[in-house]
Amino acid sequence: MLVKENLPVPIRDNHQITEAMTDLYDRYYTSHEYEKRYPKPNQSTLHFLFENGAKEARDILDFGCGNGRYALPLLQQTDARLTAYDISHAAIAELSRFLQDHPHAARIRLFDGEAEKLNAQGDYDMIMLMFGVLSHIGDHSARIATLRQLRGLIRPEGKLVLSVPCIFRRRPFELFTAYWQRVTGKARDTQKEPGNIFFTRNIDKQAHQFFYHLYSVAGLRAELQEAGFTITALAPESLLPEWMITQSDLLGKLDEALLPLLPATLGYGIRAVAVPV
Ligand SMILES: C[S@@+](CC[C@H](N)C(=O)[O-])C[C@H]1O[C@@H](n2cnc3c(N)ncnc32)[C@H](O)[C@@H]1O
After folding, report:
1. By Cβ atoms counted within 10 A, which residue in 84, 93, 211, 238 is the most buried?
2. What is the CA(62)–ligand 1 centre distance, in A?
3. Coiled coil where (predicted)?
4. How many A from CA of 86 to the centre of ligand 1?
5. Are the C-beta atoms of 257 and 250 separated by less than 8 Å?
6. How far is the C-alpha of 19 from the C-alpha of 79, rounded, in Å?
C-alpha cells in the first residue's frame, strides 16, 4: 500500500492493517531481509515449545508461521503432523522452497491467504502464534475474532502457545505519540485503542508502515480470557532484542541463562501457554 514519493498511506482500520501487513511481509520474505534479521529460532522459545507439549503433540498448527523458523525444527524434532499458515504468500512460498526434498515434507501442510481456510481442516493439540503474530492482526475486535477461531480449532486438552511484544519494553516514542493523538482527539479508528502503535521502517529500500498492539501481562490475560482461554504458564521471551539473540549464538546463550531472573512482564516479548476453558 504505497503512494507517491514512496511514503506509506496511513493505515487506520482493520482492513487496511491486514493489507499493509500482507504487503510488508511479502516484501520482507521475498527480499530475504526477515531471514537476515532473524536467521534462526530463538532457542529458548524452541525449548519452551518442547517443555509445553510439542514433543507429545500429534497435530500442531503454526498460525503466522512466516518462513518456518519454528515449524521446520518442530518437523525435524517431533513426530507431529504440522499445519503451517501465514497471511503472506511469500512466507509460504519460502517455506515451501525449504521443504523441497525435505525427508519429512509429507508431514506438513501449507496454507496462505484467508485464515477461514483453516476451518474445515481438522483440529490441533498445539496451536502456536509466535513472535508477535497476534499483535499484527488489528484492533481488539480483530484479535478476539482470531483467538475465537483458534479456540474453535483447539482440542479440549490442547495448548495455545504464543508470544507478544511487551508494552514496557517496546517503542516508547510511538506509544507516547499514540497517547498524544488520543488525548488531543486526533486518534481515528484503531488508533483509539491504548497499546496500538504504528511506525515506519524500510524493507528492501521501501518505507512500510507496521502496526503492533503492545501487551502487558494483564492485557494478554484479559484478551485470552475473553476468547475462552486461561493462561497456565508465563515467561519472558528474551531480555535482549530478538534480532541480537538470533544473530549471535553467544548472546542467545547468555540471554537464555539470564531469563529465569527476569519477570515475564519485563521481557522484550511475553511468552504464554493458554488452555481452553
Ligand atoms: C514477526 S513475524 C513472525 C513469524 C514467525 N512466527 C516467526 O516467529 O518467525 C509475524 C508474522 O505474522 C504474519 N501475519 C501478519 N498478520 C497476520 C494475520 N492477520 N494472520 C496471519 N498471519 C499474519 C506475517 O505475515 C508474519 O509472517
Report:
1. 84
2. 10
3. none
4. 6
5. no
6. 35
